[in-house]
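Section 5: illustrative case.
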């Protein structure tokens, strides 16, 4: 029976396969990931244990989130289409250091978050779901109360950076490592190797990397990659206008935060009638797969808050934003709660606990749908990009991999628009993956792509479809053979039973 099932199903799948679909292979790279950026203390309380430091009514101290809480909710994260979780720093912190940046001991896990065993359990659960876990590693600062400050006073200097956001007021309680000191360099390199080996995670997010000495970061990244070339290394920034030249020149980093994208995306997608082409122009978009793309983070106002202030619909706006975030070259990193969505004009509201009880299922569906398309079509993770045409607030771009193209249309206008393309053979048709629209060539061999106001669509190229009699005949023939084989097996079984009864 099993052989008959295989003979029936496999040819059917092969026959119906879309020849223009290129699926991602099993060997993942950073470009295949969608990162969920998570603030451990503000995600989920798994242990429900009491603590003198926890006060759920005080947004400036621990609120009770822990590693076990993430493990308990990881399937929820996976269902949103996320393939990797980046945890905020979990090292032992000073009192009140819920954010993880007041490090007192670089070699211990903060008790409020759990233990190293909890991290191992999370990593194992993630791997069971084909997900990965990344740790945020702070290399620049240490709490003023850390024993290191008294033991090695020559290792430190005053913080020189001026905070750009209220959320970075934690800088007032830290001192900076003097990263020109060779002992500091050796110490921080050992810290990085320790967490790589002990935590068993799949990568690091280097926090505030724009403030890290370039030579030191390159040395640490080199040593980590030497131990495991597949260990992911990404770099995020403290300031949205920081100097990232040394990060872009570091060939050992897999992705670097694209600050220009953050600014352009918030200028364009948070209000209607802004041309999508401005994002292309202002970010100098190429096929740079090392861009780490984001629309907000724990320091900035929430993206949902920004467009909500302008009266935009949360479902359609997230669809437009994700069409760009997920389907252009680079690595998307999404701040926790975006899929709910959560709001917050700034600190501390932008760091509130994720409230799944108020989730909008339509928004969650948008995240899942966009992630599914990104995973299914390799054009979106490894293909070239070309800006095809624009019409006011509407833009059409093309992703191509292995000579097979997919079109993405985004209309950010408050009015409908139509664009024309003539580069597709009229023997084919365009089929929309989001709204299931079908577009065929007109008498001039042109394809007219009309888009409703504030919408996005993804078009694959496929053969024109009428009644596919060859396919129908094939299915009917296989079905007849399948049924006939079952009847024959049934007759033989009855004969054996009859003979056994004699």
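Designed sequence:
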């Amino acid at each position: 029976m099993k052989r008959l099932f295989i003979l029936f199903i496999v040819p059917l799948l092969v026959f119906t396969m879309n020849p223009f679909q290129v699926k991602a292979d099993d060997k993942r790279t950073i470009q295949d990931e969608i990162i969920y950026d998570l603030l451990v203390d503000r995600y989920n309380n798994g242990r429900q244990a009491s603590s003198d430091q926890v006060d759920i009514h005080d947004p400036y101290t621990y609120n009770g989130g822990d590693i076990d809480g993430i493990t308990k909710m990881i399937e929820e994260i996976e269902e949103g289409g996320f393939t990797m979780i980046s945890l905020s720093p979990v090292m032992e912190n000073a009192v009140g250091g819920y954010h993880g940046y007041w490090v007192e001991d670089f070699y211990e896990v903060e008790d409020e978050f759990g233990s190293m065993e909890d991290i191992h359990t999370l990593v194992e659960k993630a791997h069971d779901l084909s997900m990965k876990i990344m740790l945020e590693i702070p290399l620049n600062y240490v709490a003023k109360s850390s024993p290191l400050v008294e033991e090695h006073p020559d290792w430190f200097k005053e913080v020189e950076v001026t905070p750009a956001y209220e959320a970075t007021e934690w800088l007032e309680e830290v001192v900076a490592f003097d990263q020109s000191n060779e002992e500091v360099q050796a110490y921080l390199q050992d810290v990085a190797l320790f967490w790589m080996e002990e935590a068993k995670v799949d990568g690091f997010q280097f926090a505030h990397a724009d403030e890290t000495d370039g030579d030191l970061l390159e040395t640490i990244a080199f040593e980590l990659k030497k131990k495991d070339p597949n260990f992911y290394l990404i770099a995020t920034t403290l300031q949205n206008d920081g100097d990232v030249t040394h990060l872009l020149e570091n060939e050992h980093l897999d992705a670097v935060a694209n600050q220009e994208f953050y600014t352009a995306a918030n200028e364009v997608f948070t209000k209607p009638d802004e041309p999508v082409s401005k994002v292309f122009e202002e970010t100098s978009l190429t096929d740079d797969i090392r861009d780490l793309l984001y629309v907000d983070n724990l320091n900035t106002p929430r993206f949902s808050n920004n467009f909500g202030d302008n009266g935009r619909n949360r479902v359609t706006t997230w669809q437009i934003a994700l069409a760009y975030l997920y389907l252009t070259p680079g690595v998307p990193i999404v701040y926790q709660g975006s899929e709910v969505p959560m709001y917050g004009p700034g600190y501390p509201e932008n760091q509130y606990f994720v409230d799944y009880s108020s989730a909008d299922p339509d928004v969650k569906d948008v995240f899942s749908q966009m992630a599914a398309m990104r995973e299914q079509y390799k054009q979106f993770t490894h293909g070239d990009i070309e800006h095809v045409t624009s019409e006011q607030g509407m833009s059409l771009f093309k992703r191509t991999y292995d000579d097979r193209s997919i079109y993405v249309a985004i209309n950010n206008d408050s009015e409908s628009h139509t664009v024309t393309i003539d580069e597709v053979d009229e023997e084919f048709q365009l089929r929309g993956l989001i709204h299931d629209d079908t577009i065929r060539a007109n008498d001039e061999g042109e394809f007219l792509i009309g888009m409703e106001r504030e919408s996005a669509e993804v078009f694959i190229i496929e053969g024109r479809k009428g009644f596919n009699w060859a396919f129908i005949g094939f299915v009917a023939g296989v079905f007849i053979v399948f049924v006939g084989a079952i009847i024959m097996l049934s007759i033989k079984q009855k004969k054996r039973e009859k003979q056994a009864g004699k």
